[in-house]
Amino acid sequence: MKILCEVQVVNRITQANRTPRPVKSTLAIGYKQSARDSNGNATNKKELEMVLFTPQVKSGTRYKVRENIHCVHTKFVLDGKVTIGFKQPAENLLIKCDPIQLKGFLQTMKLGMEGKDAINLRLNISAATAIAQKAQPQQRMSINKRSEYPIKGFPRTLKSLSINNIQLMKLSFEICTLRNLTTLDVSGNKLTKIPKELGRLPLTTLRLSGNSLGELNDWCWLRGSKLSKSLCELDLSANGLSHFPKPLVRFERLVTLNLNHNRLQYLPFGIRRLQKLRALHVSSNKLESLPAAIEDLHIDLLDVWGNCFKGFNVEVAQTQVRRPAAPNNAPTPLWLQAARVVANQKLPYTASTLPAILIELISEAPKCHCGKLCFALNSGDVLKRVTQPMFTNIKNLTYSREHQIYLDVIICGADCCVFQQMKLLSNIMFP
Ligand SMILES: [Zn+2]
Q1: CA of 336 to the centre of ligand 1 (A)
Q2: What PANTHER family has UniProt attached to this entry (predicted)?
């Protein structure tokens, strides 16, 4: 009989462990047919032997069993733990195994010690070998040639999958069903669209660099509930993006966002929702300004190298604060007042206590320096673009020194104290 178990060998005299930890082992028991006894006389006596196969001793360590047992501790056999001690050598085997198998093994040992013949003992112990350990389920796969793409499908156990530079046009639905997947890298292909089912996977890392997702600008997959709550790292660099994908501001776990080498002209004010963001790469885009909301984040690395920061552009400015228009001089709508109260008083709220539109407003609408939420430019809010902003929350900033960085600031009204102060400061560029 053979069992697969974990064994630690302890020498009782030296108290030395042959292995510091229990190691995966095979324990075998059976009769050894010895043609001659110790006196050299021919005999049919069967010698009971136990063999311990470990990765260190592949040929096995042999222990005589009959009249050689020092102790057997079975108190924790139901927990799958047993100690068998031998007299020669003075070693204890601390065995951990499936409890049912372990009980079977002890019963077999007992039968053997009584000299009985049992099916479980009909093992040629001299020729016994370790149980072949099951190959580890495949967790990683990397495909760099079209010929490597699996025809019979992907192993369901995959945790990490990369498919790079093979001109892939479409991400197969099957990939979206790999429930164990946490890292997906499909950089350097020809994807124009991601299936919306991908949003159901709890990925932590997603690399889509060097595709053509800006072509269709289809971001349905970013609305998937699981992905938006799990994703920590997203690479959308070199995808020809002309707009920041709007649903991305709800990826509140995002730590690293790479948007290098696109054609972005602005980042949304709602980016302040990404409170876990630590690295934001937007080099080599067409950014004319950054939203002041970037100062509300706790960014360790901001890379804005190679953009075209410049003065005010009213058209772009209007699209940044694109909210339902309110008539001039209209009273502040009740729901905006409600959102402002919740935000100002820092009242706790959840999706079940507050309508989604208010949550969106509180976490994504531009915020005036005075702390008030702004809503629409034509309801009295003022947009200013300032240069040389002081980034107090950004640890490392990479930018082209020939360009000044411009920051768009929204002020809640001409009578706000912030606006009055700004008028006094000389570094403000008025339109
Ligand atoms: Zn204000």
Answers
A1: 14
A2: PTHR48051, RAS SUPPRESSOR PROTEIN 1 (PTHR48051:SF1)
